[in-house]
Write a structure and sequence with these properties.
Elements (H helix, E strand, L loop, with lengths): L1 H29 L3 H6 L5 H11 L10 E3 L6 E2 L13 E4 L8 E4 L3 E4 L11 E10 L4 E9 L6 E10 L2 E12 L4 E9 L3 E11 L7 H10 L13 H36 L4 H15 L2 H15 L15 H27 L2 H8 L4 H12 L1 H17 L2 H7 L4 H10 L3 H29 L7
Antiparallel strand pairs: 1-11, 2-11, 3-4, 4-11, 5-10, 6-9, 6-11, 7-8, 7-10
Helix pairs in contact: 1-4, 1-14, 5-6, 5-8, 5-11, 5-14, 6-8, 7-8, 9-10, 11-14, 12-13, 13-14
Amino acid sequence: MIRYILKRCMQMLPTLGGVILITFVLFNLVGGSPASMTLGKHVSPRALEEFDEQRGFNKPLLCGWWARTRALADQAFATGIGPWRRVPGAAFAGPAGHDPGRLVLKDNALYPVPLEFALLPATRYELSVTYRLTAGGVTTLQTREQSPADSVLIIEYRQIPLPCSPRWRTIHLPVRTGTEALSLIFKVENQPLEIRSLKLRRRMAHPLDSQLVFYLKQIARLDFGVSSSMNQPVSRLLRQGILPSLALTIPILAVELIVSVVLALVCAFFRNTFIDRFLVVLTVALMSINYLVWIVAGQYLLAYRLHWFPLWGFESWRYLLLPVVIGVISGLGANVRFYRTVMLDEMYKDYVRTAFAKGVSRKGVLFRHVLKNAMIPIITNVMIALPFLYTGSLLLESFFGIPGLGYLSVNALNSADVDVVRAVVLVGSILFIAANLVTDICYAWVDPRVKLG
């Protein structure tokens, strides 16, 4: 048994790696900028950069030496000069022939690059410039340190010359900051400088300093980040929400399983009789009623009008009674139909006819033979539901004010709390993989024909 469990755990590692990779792609690549989704589109680039810095979103996706920075968005001047409008003397020249639109910096002037915020100290950058400069022109990129307190220029840090080039040329200018924040200034003399595009990149410590490695380190430390809406560690929120969720979902699963199996056995015992047909009609009716109808009707009739149950909150076990009743009733129809089909399928097999021929009573056949051989589909159905016990019931927790993981997930979706949603999805996926292992072990336990190898 232990050897089998270890073997299955080793086989689960590629699946676990795939789950982690898919979760990473969904939340770091497909959905767009997590910072913009969480903070909104009208916050400052500095605030977005700080959000990315805390959560590792300002690093290369998989690997690489260079990463984008919000201090200067990639600029191509085909249709306009964008933030350069704020720079006195900067002009736009439209497309001419094969030449695209371009930014024109006239001669004998200083042009500060319109950074959204000063570059970080003690950091290496690279400014990629696609430009054209007539012979005789002199242009240098000046990097100047400045005091963060009063923004007064205190020292000229370095000058990087741009070679003359009558054709479009791309040059990568290294920018190294000192102990203070940095600003960039183009000094143009004799001839105007034409710029077609600008890109600013930040140098990483090593090529594996990426979003993927940052995410894997978080998972290894069981650190799921910080909730942006509640400003608390996500791991703490998960610990606080797991008990209310399990207090709701475990009773629902246990009661629903027992009642469903019992009613399915009753249908099999009285098959083709009035009781069987009545239960079939009842289960179809239960399946046809929407989940929200049960919640609204239960709250209004049983809690608000009749005062049999508390309406809202999570102060004692009494507050769980009505949600549990609604959860059991809403899922009873589908489960009874499924288990009834399983039981009737077993009833027509050869071993059942043999048992009847030996004189075994109908009750003995049902409980000693049929129920035992029907355990594999029952276990499968139960094990599929086990991982979802962790995430709770979204609607029940939301409508009844139960502070579980379902309630937490709904609030996280409404507030675009990326870290919480990602943690709930990841942990739920891992639990689903573990449930498959438990399912295989239970198969061998209830059915001797299944061998663990």
